[in-house]
Write a structure and sequence with these properties.
Blueprint (H helix, E strand, L loop, with lengths): L3 E3 L2 E3 L4 E2 L19 H16 L10 H6 L8 E5 L7 H4 L7 E5 L7 H13 L4 E7 L3 H12 L5 H10 L10 H21 L1 H8 L4 E7 L6 E3 L2
Parallel strand pairs: 1-3, 4-5, 4-6, 6-7
Antiparallel strand pairs: 1-2, 7-8
Helix pairs in contact: 5-6
Length: 227
């Protein structure tokens, strides 16, 4: 998972965020939280490296931490991911209780409830990083692509998901490549919609927030950037 991030843009290179003056995140009793977008991104990178090399620490699960969290929470990142059971953010980033605020919807579809949940983490808890996390072999994306190609009528609630993904469908390729390309395109679309929100955009402009896109590869367990 190697990338550099400035505001909402992700560029090639090391995971470095050039974001000045982010507000400090309160320390918990036994550890400090990443307080900047840069630090938060590095923590996710380190955790994913532990996960994919089978060196997980399963941090922050002790009796003391559980007691500490009764009085409040200070997560350092929001991860907006898919509902897929193979991609639980706390595991793929090797994080523990109180570390991540996770929001999950099929295909990372962004509706008012999802947007409100992300905004709550940023605006109320001061979280400095939002990651939109797509993944290889996304069933929601595959369903949306299949429905468009076949004209098949999906059940009402599933049709809503497919309709939300439809604008991201990549028609420059076909077959399995179309589904895979659309996974990344959907990440980009959702990331851009989040970054366009007035309240979140103000935090980005102030250097207090970064919104990044990434995807998880089931075959390698690697999280990597999506430009």
């Amino acid at each position: 998972m190697r990338a550099a991030v400035t505001g909402t843009a992700v560029t090639a290179g090391a995971w470095v965020l050039d974001v000045p003056g982010a507000a400090a995140v309160p320390a918990t009793a036994d550890r400090r939280r990443p307080a900047t977008p840069e630090a938060a991104l590095r923590a996710l990178e380190s955790g994913n490296r532990r996960w994919r090399t089978f060196r997980e620490r399963h941090p922050h699960e002790t009796r003391a931490v559980r007691r500490e969290l009764v009085s409040g929470q200070h997560p350092f990142a929001v991860v907006l991911g898919c509902i897929d059971s193979r991609v639980p953010p706390e595991l793929v980033f090797d994080q523990g209780l109180g570390d991540l605020m996770t929001v999950r919807s099929a295909g990372e579809v962004l509706d008012e409830a999802v947007l409100g949940s992300v905004a709550y983490g940023v605006l109320e808890l001061g979280i400095p990083l939002v990651m939109v996390l797509g993944h290889q072999s996304c069933g929601a994306v595959a369903a949306a692509v299949h429905a468009e190609e076949s004209g098949e009528e999906l059940p009402a609630h599933i049709r809503y998901i497919a309709d939300q993904i439809k604008p991201a469908i990549d028609h420059s390729v076909e077959g399995a490549a179309r589904i895979d390309a659309t996974v990344s395109a959907q990440v980009r679309l959702v990331r851009s919609r989040l970054a366009a929100d007035a309240d979140l955009a103000a935090r980005i402009a102030a250097g207090r927030l970064a919104i990044v896109g990434a995807r998880y590869e089931l075959t390698s367990q690697l999280v990597h950037r999506v430009d």
